[in-house]
Each structure stands twice: as C-alpha cells, then as structure tokens.
C-alpha cells in the first residue's frame, strides 16, 4: 500500500494505492509520491506518465484530514509545502503527466490533478475543493491553479462553496479534456500517453515547459501566500471544528 510505479513500454503509471482510505494522502504517501515523480524525471526510458488512484471510487480524496486535524502552524506550513513540491514535481518533470481521474478528486486530489498536463475523467469522477467546510483554504495549489484552468469566476465558486463538480460539468467547464466509461479510462489514457511517447522527447518536454509559460506570472508568489493562509487557520476554532466534525461524522458548526 502506498504509491505504485509500473512501466508499460515508455509509459509510467503512478497509482496512489490506499483504496480503503479513498487514496487520501498523508505525509508518508505524499513524500512517496514526490520521490516517485523525482525518480521518473531523469529516467529517459519514460516518455509519458499517467497518474491514477487504486480501486474504483477515488483518484485521491484529498489530504489526510485525520493527520491534518493535529497539525500546528509549523506542521501545516510543512504539509502545504510538501503538497506544493509534489505538484511542482509533476509540473516540472520533462515528461507530460496525464491524470486519469477515476472517482473522487477532492481537495489535495483535485489540486494534484490540476498540476497534471492533461486530465481525463471517468463518468464517476467528482471534483471539489471542500476545504472551506473544514475551516481552511485550499493548501496544495488550488487557489493558484484552478483559476488558470477554469477561469477565476468558476474557480471562486468551487473554492468558496466547496460544491462538487461531476464529470459532465467538469467536461463542460474545461476541467477535464474528456469523459470515459470507468473500464475504458486507463486504456484511453494509455493510448494517449503512447501517442505522446512516439514523439520527440525533446520537443515534447520543450512544449510542456512552454505551455506552462503561457500564463504569465509564476504561481510561486501565490503559492507562498497560500501556504501562509492555510497554516494560519491551524489551531484556530474553525479548523478544529471543521476537522473534528469530519472525524466525528457530523456537520460542522462554525461560530465565525
Ligand atoms: N482524509 C482522511 N481520511 C479520508 C479522507 C480524507 N481526505 N477521505 C476519505 N477518508 C477515509 C474515511 O475517513 C474512511 O475511513 P474509515 O473507514 O477509517 O472511517 C474511508 O476513507 C472511506 O471514506 P467514507 O467512509 O467517508 O466514504 P463515503 O463513501 O461515506 O464518503 C467521501 C466518501 C465523500 C469522499 C468522504 O470520505 C469525504 O468527504 N472525504 C473527505 C474529502 C475531503 O474533504 N477532502 C479534502 C481534504 S482537505 C485537503 O485536501 C487540504 C488541502 O488542500 C491540502
């Protein structure tokens, strides 16, 4: 259980493998995910990557709330920075990364999918940034990357309401490129990755880097503010109430 890395020819498949926890990422699994992408980057035998979740319910249901519930501000800053490092590794390795979103992509899961170059969804995919209901803002890049993908208005609606966006809406708003039946998703992602892998690796990686430059303004400055605001909520009443409510399986009540 953890992070699986398999290679099909020139395509690597990275699978977050903790299906009983809907592939939620604690520090250990996020660090393993980071190491996996850092290992893939310099491997010239890999020309394209697919990231997905084990099981049939979730891509990644977010950062591990049970671990976060006990973080102090220093711990929360480190946790935000860890998520940022995973996302930056996905964005900066030379190989394109396709997210095969096979169920819940919530909070940190949605945020890591946003760092991928291409998102394909299964019909049961569900995206959301539900952090505000837990007493925190998004902390793994959602405030900076979601507006770049769906535009600021829709990003604001998703982040401020926390509402869930299903696959058909995700397709309509440009959050995903295509929607497939769950049993077709990985094969379709594999076919796309294999097509990428046939092209010049230098031209592909240069194109990936250049597409990243299309939106002027590096996300680093915003990410720094995001990590600060995320950590600032820890130890406060709203973060304690929001996460306790999740763990106790009851609705949160925020005094504000
Ligand atoms: N953290 C920790 N555990 C999680 C989890 C998460 N994000 N998501 C699911 N799990 C665990 C559940 O606690 C449960 O474990 P137990 O069996 O030990 O109780 C197991 O996964 C199965 O989940 P449920 O029983 O809750 O399954 P469900 O079908 O009833 O509900 C769900 C599914 C709607 C996705 C629900 O699990 C849920 O709401 N999960 C939390 C989603 C969320 O809020 N994610 C964002 C986290 S915040 C974040 O990511 C911050 C950031 O920006 C970095």
List the SSEs and their pairings:
Elements: E1 2-8, E2 11-17, H1 27-40, E3 48-53, E4 58-60, H2 65-68, H3 73-92, E5 97-101, E6 104-106, H4 108-115, E7 118-122, E8 126-128, H5 142-150, H6 152-161, E9 165-166, H7 167-172, E10 178-180, H8 182-197, H9 201-212, H10 220-232, H11 237-247
Parallel strand pairs: 2-3, 3-5, 4-6, 5-7, 6-8, 7-10
Antiparallel strand pairs: 1-2, 8-9
Bound molecules: acetoacetyl-coenzyme A.
Residues 21-22, 24, 61-66, 83, 104, 106-108, 111, 130-131, 134, 138-140 line the site of acetoacetyl-coenzyme A.
Describe the structure.
The chain has 256 residues and is an alpha/beta fold. It folds into two domains: 3-197, 2-enoyl-CoA Hydratase, Chain A, domain 1 (Alpha-Beta Complex); 201-248, Orthogonal Bundle (Lyase 2-enoyl-coa Hydratase, Chain  A, domain 2), CATH 1.10.12. It is built from eleven helices and ten strands. It has helices at residues 27-40, 65-68, 73-92, 108-115, 142-150, 152-161, 167-172, 182-197, 201-212, 220-232, 237-247; strands at 2-8, 11-17, 48-53, 58-60, 97-101, 104-106, 118-122, 126-128, 165-166, 178-180. The strands form two sheets. The chain has a six-stranded mixed beta sheet with strand order 1-2-3-5-7-10, sandwiched between helices. It has a four-stranded mixed beta sheet with strand order 4-6-8-9. Helix 1 links the parallel strand 2 (11-17) and strand 3. The longest helix is centred in the first third of the chain and has 20 residues, at 73-92. The model has no long low-confidence stretch (mean pLDDT 95). Acetoacetyl-coenzyme A (CAA) binds next to helix 2, strand 6 and helix 4.
